[in-house]
Structure formats: C-alpha cells, structure tokens
Amino acid sequence: MDRMKLACAAIALIGIRSDAVAQSHPPTTGMTCAEARSLVVAHGAVVLSTGPTTYERYVSYSGYCGLGELAGPVWVPTQDTRQCPIGGRCVPVGRGDRS
C-alpha cells in the first residue's frame, strides 16, 4: 500500500513539474533584441512567446534541429525592435523558411 501511495505522489509531482515547464515561454516583447538573441545562444534551443497566444521553438543553429531539418532564419518582435533576427526555426530541408 505504501508503494502505491509513493508511486501516486511521484506521478503527481512529475505532472506538476511538466505543466510548469510547458507554460514557461518567456515573451520576446518583454526583452530587448540582444537579450532574446542571447537567450537562444545560451540555451541552443528555447521556446519563446511572441504574443498572447503564440509561441515557437527557436534554435541557435541547425544542430538543434531534427533529421531532415535545417535552421531557417527567423525574426521576432522584441521590446526595442520590430524584427529581431533571433536565430533560426527548424524547417524541413528544401522548404526554406516557408511554414
């Protein structure tokens, strides 16, 4: 019985932690272009919010993309720049930056 309680508690904690991570998408509009670019470079790949209901995964280079993908250039709005070249977004090879 104690094992069952421990297992349930562990599953609950994992669920809470997953929700917290899933919801932490720092908004690009709340940081400068330099700060946003530094965040992508520091982490290699990061999910950022670009608006109230939009978010995307940005990468510093193609090494953070999956097989058959390359990092296509992408620009996002920031506090000081309307189109900040933040890094890249993974796109299938041959598609360029078309989504």
From TrEMBL:
It comes from the Bacteria. Residues 1-22 form the signal peptide. Keywords: Signal. This is Secreted protein. It comes from Microvirga mediterraneensis.
